Amino acid sequence: MEYLLFTYPNCDKCEAFKKKLKELPFEGCEIDLVRKEGKARLREFLAYVRRDERGAIVLPLFIVLNEGRVEVALNTLEELEAWLKSRA
C-alpha cells in the first residue's frame, strides 16, 4: 500500500496532513500541484477530486493505492482518522 498526497505551497491544511503522515507507517510521496508534472499526475485521479463552491480543488488530496488501485481518497484529517479507525 502506498499513498499520494497532492498539495499546494503555503497550504496550512496540507502542512498539517504532512505532519500527521510522518507519525504513520505509510510509504508514499507528496505531489506539488505547482509543478507541471504534479498537475499531469492529478489528471489520473480526477474522479476523486472534490471541488468547493467556487470550483477550486479541495486540498490536500490524499489517495491510498493498494496494488495500483485507489483504496480511498481523503481531504481532511478527520477523514483520515475515521479511515484509520475503520482499518483497526
Q: What is the number of domains?
A: 1
Low-pLDDT parts are none
Using only C-alpha atoms, the radius of gyration works out to: 12 Å
Mean pLDDT: 96
* CATH topology-level name: Glutaredoxin
Oligomeric grouping of the chains: single chain
Helix content: 25-40%
Identify the CATH homologous superfamily: Glutaredoxin
- Please report the total strand number as a whole number: 4
Q: What is the molecular shape?
A: globular
Highest-level CATH class: Alpha Beta
- DSSP strand content: 25-35%
How are helices and strands ordered from N to C? EHEHEEH
Strand order of the largest sheet: 2-1-3-4
**Tally of individual helices:** 3
The major β-sheet equals: 4 strands, mixed
Specify the structural class.
Answer: alpha+beta
Q: Tell me which CATH architecture applies here.
A: 3-Layer(aba) Sandwich
